[in-house]
């Protein structure tokens, strides 16, 4: 009796990223770059670039950091637009938005309360700036703190980005089609309680997510301030680099 044809194995991917990249975080980004490069076998991760973090670190006015960004892009790093200011200065009228702004981020959900026109302008300006600096098309747009209001979601379909991401999925920014599902593993440094919670989640993820087709890991400049976070990040990268192929976001399209 003939045996049934074997099914092709599903390739499991690891998508890693450094958030909040800009002139004000250069030292921390360099440290995280070294860690991710070592654990993933090369520059197989993305950077999320903030054009003017909190209005204090304008990328446009820093040629030296522009050169660093261009060098990283030339090495193969994918560049995402990560808001414009990162800071949330909107007044939120709905209870849901107020809750997210208060409990899911420390005043950094920039795109949670923007109207469509403002969100679209900032998206397009960020895309143009980063593409001009790197000479390459941006990989996509990821809102600060992964928080999108209705205006931002409407703007995404018009801004010309290939990809977008939130806490739970990656999707085609133009069509809305979901490309990958599952929680992103990230860490928090702004309070002892949040740090402890993020360490616990990362430990749980190392046990429960190995069978997941796509695993996402996101690190932030503030993570370098606590040795416990760096140790957890290292263990998590090692764990998933052993079971998932470090990949580019573009490969899941």
UniProtKB/TrEMBL annotation:
One Pfam family it belongs to: DUF2334
Domain of life of the native organism: Bacteria
InterPro entries membership: DUF2334 (IPR018763), Glyco_hydro/deAcase_b/a-brl (IPR011330)
Descriptive protein name: Polysaccharide deacetylase family protein
